[in-house]
Amino acid sequence: MPAEASTFTYYDILALPNPTSTKDPTTSDAVKTAYRRALLRHHPDKTKTADAARNARPSVDQITLAYKTLASPTKRLAYDRSLVQQRRTSDARSQDQQCEGFESVDLDDMHVDEMAGLYFLGCRCGRARGYIVTENELEKHATQGAVNVGCEGCSLWIKVEFGVVDGEAVDEGLKHDEHG
């Protein structure tokens, strides 16, 4: 979700229920209807609210972007995945403060799917790609050198640690080969 959409999800913007499972009951007609209602509800020419309240509302551009994303099955799937990853990362940060015993894993120990731009690792629950870390997540957490990741199939978490050189995660073995 773009930064200008602030704390609103696209589902919030269109007043649609957030998907809670792999079966989403929201149809394309429902998305179109929600889009039209959101435009009427939030259009600057149609509302007479104070500037502070207007700034707390989504813009027409944000409403249109939400519609275009949720109306396209492929864009919607990618967006839903990004919401899940954001929630997991947020949950992991709060759990990291509360819980000890996170299993630490080096990024080098994970498998790479270069086509999808992600790293993955199997979980004890049996899911082959239980833990998934995207390159974008690594970039976001480059200053920390670690990212907490929840399993896609159960409630287990790991901390993926990585080295950073010039803003990119690097393979420790490659660094040693280059220097000696």
Automatic annotation (TrEMBL):
Q: Which SUPFAM superfamilies match?
A: Chaperone J-domain, CSL zinc finger
Enumerate the UniProt keywords alphabetically: Cytoplasm, Iron, Metal-binding, Nucleus, Zinc
Indicate the segments annotated as coiled coil, or none if absent.
Answer: none
Q: In which pathway does it act?
A: Protein modification; peptidyl-diphthamide biosynthesis
Ubl conjugation in keyword set:
no
Which GO cellular component terms, listed alphabetically, does the Swiss-Prot or TrEMBL entry include? cytoplasm; nucleus
Question: What positions does the domain DPH-type MB occupy?
Answer: 101-163
Residues covered by the J domain: 9-83
Q: Name one Pfam family in it.
A: Zn_ribbon_CSL
Say where the protein is mainly found: cytoplasm
Please provide the Gene Ontology terms (biological process) for this protein.
Answer: protein histidyl modification to diphthamide
Tell where it localizes.
Answer: Cytoplasm; Nucleus
Alphabetically, the GO molecular function entries are: metal ion binding
Keyword field contains Metal-binding: yes
| InterPro entries, sorted | DnaJ_domain, DPH3/4-like, DPH_MB_dom, DPH_MB_sf, J_dom_sf
Function, as annotated: Required for the first step of diphthamide biosynthesis, the transfer of 3-amino-3-carboxypropyl from S-adenosyl-L-methionine to a histidine residue. Diphthamide is a post-translational modification of histidine which occurs in elongation factor 2.
The Swiss-Prot or TrEMBL record describes its family as follows: Belongs to the DPH4 family.
Report what the protein is called: Diphthamide biosynthesis protein 4
Species of origin? Ramalina farinacea
